[in-house]
């Protein structure tokens, strides 16, 4: 079954027939597995990765590290939920290290992201501090390389 989902993760456009051919799993079983995974929310959504700069659209991304005070009985979940409900928050992760949450934020300009951090994110009661890192260039996202088209071949290392 894992092969079905690995194939879908690489290319969500694959048909059950194609996946069946690739994995040797009967088409009916592929369809059943996909339907069950969708119902169970194991498959959350089908995604297309777009290089917006090639379409003439500008987007600014920032990774914001957030230090928070965990709340009694809910830990980090409550503050993470408040943050992920903001439209600017693309992704929110609990992380190890100096900061507790890593938030990927999107906006049209650096100023828009700065306003989000200073007026919406930082003032939240549980937030103790933030550090913002602006993404200057995308090289690879979700396994897709943005420039060059193919992953560079690694040269063998000679002793």
Q: Let me know the largest β-sheet.
A: 4 strands, antiparallel
CATH superfamily of the largest domain, please?
A: Lrp/AsnC effector binding domain/regulation of amino acid metabolism (RAM) domain
Cα radius of gyration in angstroms: 20 Å
User: Mean pLDDT across all residues, rounded?
Assistant: 90
CATH topology of the largest domain: Alpha-Beta Plaits
In terms of quaternary structure, what is this? Answer: single chain
Q: Strand share of the residues?
A: 15-25%
Apparent shape: globular
Tell me, what is the CATH class of the largest domain?
Alpha Beta
State the order of secondary-structure elements, H for helix, E for strand.
HHHEHEEHEEE
- End-to-end CA span: 41 Å
Structural class: alpha+beta
CATH architecture of the largest domain: 2-Layer Sandwich
Task: Please mark out the parts with pLDDT under 50 across 5 or more consecutive residues, or reply none.
Answer: none
How many structural domains does the protein architecture include?
Answer: 2
Biggest sheet strand line-up: 2-3-1-4
What report would you give on this structure?
This protein has helices at 2-10, 16-23, 27-39, 77-84, 110-121, and strands at 60-68, 89-94, 101-107, 127-135, 140-141, 144-145. The protein is an alpha+beta fold and 159 residues long. It folds into two domains: 2-39; 52-137, Lrp/AsnC effector binding domain/regulation of amino acid metabolism (RAM) domain (Alpha-Beta Plaits). Helix 1 packs across helix 2 and helix 2 (16-23) crosses helix 3.
């Amino acid at each position: 079954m894992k092969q079905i989902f690995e194939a879908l993760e690489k290319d969500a456009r694959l048909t059950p027939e194609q996946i069946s051919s690739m994995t040797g799993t009967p088409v009916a079983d592929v369809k059943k597995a996909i339907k069950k995974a969708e119902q169970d929310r194991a498959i959350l959504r089908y995604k297309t990765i777009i290089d917006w700069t090639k379409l003439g659209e500008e987007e600014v991304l920032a990774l914001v590290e957030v230090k928070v005070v965990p709340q009694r009985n809910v830990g980090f979940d409550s503050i993470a939920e408040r943050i992920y409900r903001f439209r600017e928050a693309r992704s929110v992760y609990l992380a190890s290290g100096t900061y507790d949450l890593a938030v990927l934020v999107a906006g049209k300009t650096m100023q828009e992201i700065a306003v989000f951090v200073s007026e919406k994110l930082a003032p939240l009661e549980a937030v103790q501090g933030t550090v913002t890192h602006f993404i200057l260039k995308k090289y690879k996202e979700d396994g897709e390389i943005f420039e060059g088209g193919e992953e560079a071949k690694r040269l063998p290392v000679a002793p």
